[in-house]
Design a protein that fits this description.
The protein has 487 residues and is α/β, with parallel strands linked by helices. It contains 20 helices and 13 strands. The strands form 3 sheets. Strands 7-6-5-4-8 form a 5-stranded antiparallel sheet, with no helix packed on it. β5 and β6 form a beta hairpin. The structure holds fe (ii) ion (2 copies).
């Protein structure tokens, strides 16, 4: 069995795993041979693709992390906000995962489609239970993590669907409303005797960041309960790897990279370490491209996450990238179909995002101020041609820019610069009434004092240098759009 991207499905392919629809009907059952109408349906509804069985891939086994029935009951229980059923599903989830030979979330049709509110909560629970198990939590606590994960976004039912489903960027007022959903969820569970206090706390705190920049209470580090740390990290992972009306899906390897860059800023280090053990960067059944240009499919895990066992499409040769000497210098450069889905000009999937594209036609201006030329060029390269990027190499030039051109849409500011450093420059701009200016600081060092100063300067974010392109790109999107913070 292997996973085939929606754009590459053709009539005659045989389905290897049942496809659950938005409302759970109609489903495409395992063993069904696809026709064009079914493929059109999958494209129209934003599916990433489907598992198919063929002779090339019949020996690839995809471990079923949780039973189909558990997922379906989870979607029902969450959509009805039925806490009794949620608790039952939670214990099924824990049972399914604890009986696995290897705790590994190999199924990536978990995040099949766009209408994901209820599905998302079930995915988050699957990841959260896997992580909690890997971290060695006792069984009663894993059960509580499962309940909290299934309940984490219940409070969204109290929020206007026009705001929740808005395709364009949220206004500040709308984002303030979204930020109430953890508290609403907490209130919904408050007098429910079936739910323990740590579960309610986790629901309340699932958007808190390690550095205190999250919501609703701005808690930091140890103040944030462990359950909430786990749910927060896997929540963001699920949002990154899902296709949303406003963004393409990240591949698992890119999303894991994002999580790593967010350690101690957004996420707990131990939680991210456990995630990397239970979520494969290259799950079996996924297509990959090698650095020598060859296409292959992943057939099994090895001891190294980034070097799985693969099978070449050209001649069917099976290669363990950990062992095979002839392939010692060859590595995976691209995960299957993800590149095509993200902002390419052609392809069926991109058309789904057409409306969004129109809203973005007017390019936003980002001013990048950094005295290090290499770092300036790296930032420019990471952000690509989606934005109008202006580069300056000192704080005085930046102040001058504001005098002549006014405020850009976003200022990315290096802190450590001669003459006028980044922090002083932003403080001067704030004095000049650039109150609503969006600022992201770049810093080589995230000491407590620097973080406190960034917050006093009302920066949106700070990013450690040298910045990983995936992380930087997503944090910039977030500064404009709050995408991941909506989830
Ligand atoms: Fe949430
Ligand atoms: Fe969520």
């Amino acid at each position: 069995m292997r996973f085939v991207a929606v754009g590459e499905l053709t009539p005659g392919m045989r389905i290897g795993r049942k496809i659950i629809d938005k409302r759970r009907t109609p489903m495409i059952e395992k063993g069904i041979v696809l026709n064009q109408k079914m493929i059109d349906h999958l494209v129209k509804n934003g599916y990433l693709g489907a598992y198919i069985v063929d002779r090339f891939s019949d020996e690839i086994e995809i471990q079923e992390t949780v039973k189909e029935k558990t997922i379906e009951s989870g979607i029902d229980a969450v959509s009805e906000a039925n806490v009794g059923s949620i608790i039952e599903v939670a214990s099924d989830l824990v049972k399914d995962i604890s009986s696995l030979k290897r705790i590994s979330v190999d199924m990536f049709d978990l995040r099949s489609f766009d209408d994901y509110t209820y599905h998302h909560s079930v995915n988050v629970a699957v990841y959260a239970v896997s992580v909690a198990t890997k971290m060695g939590l006792p069984e009663e606590q894993i059960q509580e993590v499962a309940v909290a994960a299934l309940c984490h976004d219940l409070g969204k039912s109290k929020i206007d669907t026009n705001i929740l489903n808005k395709r364009a960027s949220l206004t500040d007022e709308e984002f303030e409303i979204i930020k109430k959903h953890p508290r609403y969820g907490y209130d919904m569970l408050y007098d429910n005797f079936m739910v323990s206090s740590p579960v309610r706390q986790a629901v309340m705190c699932h958007h808190e960041n390690e550095n205190g920049s999250g919501y609703p209470n701005g808690m930091a580090g140890d103040e944030i309960p462990l359950y909430a740390k786990i749910i927060h990290a896997v929540d963001v992972y699920d949002a990154l790897t899902s296709r949303r009306p406003y963004k393409g899906p990240y591949s698992p390897v890119d999303a894991l990279e994002y999580m790593t860059c967010g350690i101690d800023i957004l996420f707990d280090a131990k939680v991210v370490a456990a995630m990397k053990e239970v979520i494969p960067a290259y799950p079996p059944g996924m297509d990959v491209t090698l650095s020598n240009g060859e296409k292959a499919v992943v057939i099994a895990h090895t001891s190294q996450a980034l070097r799985p066992k693969i099978k070449l499409y050209s001649d069917g040769l099976e290669i363990d990238l950990c062992e095979e000497k002839a392939f010692a210098n060859i590595f995976i450069v691209d995960s299957g179909f993800y590149k095509d889905q993200e902002g390419g000009e052609d392809g069926k999937v991109e058309k789904l995002n057409d409306d969004r594209g129109k809203e973005r036609e007017a390019l936003k201006t980002i001013l990048v101020v950094d005295d290090n030329k290499t770092s300036l060029l790296q930032t420019k390269a990471a952000l690509g041609n989606k934005y109008n990027i202006v580069g300056l190499d000192n704080g005085l030039a930046c102040l001058n820019y504001f005098k002549v051109k006014g405020a850009p849409d976003l200022l990315i500011m290096d802190i450590d610069m001669p003459i006028l450093n980044g922090m002083e420059t932003v403080e001067k701009l704030r004095e000049k009434n650039y109150d609503k200016l969006n600022v992201i600081f770049l810093t080589a060092l995230a000491s407590k004092e620097i973080v406190a100063r960034c917050r006093r300067a009302r920066a949106k974010d700070y990013i450690l240098k040298p910045a990983n392109p995936i992380y930087l790109k997503e944090r910039v999107e977030l500064a404009f759009d709050k995408t991941l913070n909506r989830e």
